[in-house]
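Re: beginner question about structure tokens

> Can someone show what the tokenized structure looks like for a real chain? I only ever see the sequence side.

Sure, here's an example I had lying around. Input first:
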Amino acid sequence: MKLIDSEVFDALMIAYNDLGFYVYNPHRPSLWSFGSVPDNVDAAFEQEDLLANRTDVFPVAGRNNIGIMIMKPFAAGHLVASKSTPPKDTKIRPSSDITASETLRSILSYSEVACVVPGMASVEEVEENVLAVSASISFSKKERSTYEQKLARVKSSLCSRCGDCHSSCSQNLPISWLFRSSYIAQHPPAVEESWDDVEYFSLHQNIESVCASCPSVTCHCPYGIDIRSSLMDIHNFITELRNNGLLVKPSERIESRSPCGRFRAKLLKKIELETVKNESSIGLRIHLENSGELPWLVWNQSKKTDARIIVLHEESLLHTESLHRTVMPLERTFLTVLFSVPRNMESSLINIKLVVPDEAGKEIPVSICSFETNSAKSV
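And the corresponding structure tokens:
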């Protein structure tokens, strides 16, 4: 607040949405081992209080004539259903019937808000967001009432990760983190917001659902979520993903190394995009973790030394795709590659490599995976 009152800033970008959270808390908490809750449970739930941003930050910014720019207005796709990556299983993450128009107009109704910066991953989402504010942004009382009712339904079905339920579990399960892992499994781009310790099979190591055989169901959610039933559905969903090769346990992931051994990478997922698949083109979404000790550097484009993914057919280059940003050790990233497949190939084997520049700008290759073009199944 002192910085806002300093009269140094003209604008401020903060996260806010009417849900009050966006699920993918990027701060690593003080985690506990399976079946053991730490003494200080509150320390494990450090996350930004978005509602406090509205009640505390908005008025101070307004008093100082500072324009507020809002990010995370759709709660990372939980408040407004994503058109590009819809939920795989609506029992795990119920699809919201709140529209982009309602959400954007609600946020823009605050006088302190100068603009909203929603995420968009498809042309359809761009059009929807633009049309949402092309007319009046005001809400009638009836529209506001309908919106509040929809918002209440979402809150009663989506785990906010408040952590109040943890002390009520007779099996000492980290309940909110199990919910979080299932949401991330349904929303592939969120891979950057996760790490091995909080993935489902690290938190729930039993083959069978612990909740299914719980002898003393004591868990309670202050917002009315049926925890036991929901966690059983989550276990079935995650197990199905693993059985179908769509999710790999952290301990089963294969690490790739450069010939010099200085750069290493783990392939977390390789998902074939059915929406672009045809006889001559393939689309892949690749999820990687930097498991080495050196960063994957993204430098100035003019130096042509960006860390990038290359797609090869034998030794022929089919496609190259630069990483979006520098990826530090233990960080994760994802990118989408679209490439054309040469016709009448004698071999259909495609190789995917990560090319990383070292400190001197020398390009170091790391083999990521190989697959046949007629069987590029998700892993």
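Each token stands for a local structural state, so reading them left to right follows the chain. The first strand starts at residue 11 and ends at 15.
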